[in-house]
């Protein structure tokens, strides 16, 4: 595996791979790799000739009171894990390499960003699409892989690719979970022992809500209320939001019908956890 830290080296690597006729798969990450990231890399390995993984903690998507400085990092360990997953090139730039000077262009997400996590993180998805756009230009991938645990991010990037006609196929990969159902996340390391025992109830609450939605006689409000009630009783965390929206448009719903996402976020003492279920209900409800 080749480890590259500069834009110039990456562009040279990509140029060589393209000249050889190789299809490139890109796996963008912020590092501190876990099984979820490796699942993305494994799928990319199966579907492409060359796999590029990026590790970059992007400051543009962190707000002033968020955890950029304390975001977990372990590059040496990440290099070993990436190599074990069959990554061909690991791109690990620093902030100065990705943003060498103030940009004269600002990207703004005008839809799909004002719900869910976007409500309390203004500008977050502007930062996401900025760095993803740069990575698409640098790596020139044929396919790019994103985990559906952050389903809003996937919806926003889907809109980015469609709106700006990027010649890349984005692939959503199902959430990788612990045996007890907790979604794998780099932030899980911040959970206390007691919080870790209660955290799997986030997914169980969503499952209960989806079950109610599929019964066919529940309103949007009833589905949300049932989910909220369970989370209040079992997670031991403050509820940030519970929402039932169309997917990937993330529009509000008048009735339980079509392709939807039931998503929630809860706040523990040092860890904010998100999770979701994407599902479809056919016919009139």
TrEMBL record:
Gene Ontology molecular function: ATP binding; pantoate-beta-alanine ligase activity
Subunit structure: Homodimer.
The family this protein is said to belong to: Belongs to the pantothenate synthetase family.
EC number annotated for this UniProt entry: 6.3.2.1
Pathway, per record: Cofactor biosynthesis; (R)-pantothenate biosynthesis; (R)-pantothenate from (R)-pantoate and beta-alanine: step 1/1
Localization (cell): Cytoplasm
Keywords, comma-separated and alphabetical: ATP-binding, Cytoplasm, Ligase, Nucleotide-binding, Pantothenate biosynthesis
Name the UniProt record assigns to this protein: Pantothenate synthetase
Gene Ontology CC: one annotated term: cytosol
Role this protein plays: Catalyzes the condensation of pantoate with beta-alanine in an ATP-dependent reaction via a pantoyl-adenylate intermediate.
Ligand binding (ATP): 30-37, 147-150, 176, 184-187
Keyword set includes Nucleotide-binding: yes
GO terms, biological process: pantothenate biosynthetic process
């Amino acid at each position: 595996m080749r480890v590259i830290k500069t834009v110039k080296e990456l562009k040279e690597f990509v140029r060589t791979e393209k000249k050889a006729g190789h299809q490139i798969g890109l796996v963008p990450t912020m590092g501190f790799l876990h099984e979820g990231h490796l699942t993305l890399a494994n799928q990319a390995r199966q579907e492409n000739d060359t796999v590029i993984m990026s590790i970059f903690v992007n400051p543009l998507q962190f707000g002033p009171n968020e955890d950029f400085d304390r975001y977990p990092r372990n590059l040496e360990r990440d290099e070993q894990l990436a190599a074990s997953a069959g990554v061909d090139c690991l791109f690990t730039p620093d902030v100065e390499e990705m943003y060498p000077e103030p940009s004269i262009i600002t990207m703004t997400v005008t839809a799909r960003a004002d719900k869910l996590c976007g409500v309390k993180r203004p500008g977050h998805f502007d930062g996401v699409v900025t760095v993803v756009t740069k990575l698409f230009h640098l790596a020139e991938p044929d396919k790019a892989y994103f985990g559906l645990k952050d389903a809003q991010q996937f919806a926003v990037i889907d809109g980015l690719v469609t709106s700006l006609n990027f010649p890349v196929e984005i692939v959503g990969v199902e959430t990788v979970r612990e045996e007890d159902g907790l979604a794998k996340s780099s932030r899980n390391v911040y959970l206390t022992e007691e919080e870790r025992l209660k955290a799997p109830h986030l997914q169980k609450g969503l499952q209960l809500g989806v079950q109610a939605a599929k019964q066919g006689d529940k309103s949007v409000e009833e589905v949300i209320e049932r989910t909220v009630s369970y989370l209040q009783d079992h997670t031991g965390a403050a509820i940030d939001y519970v929402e039932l929206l169309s997917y990937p448009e993330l529009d509000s719903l008048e009735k339980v019908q079509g392709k939807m996402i039931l998503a929630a976020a809860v706040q523990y003492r040092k860890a904010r956890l998100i999770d979701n279920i994407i599902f479809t209900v056919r016919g009139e409800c």
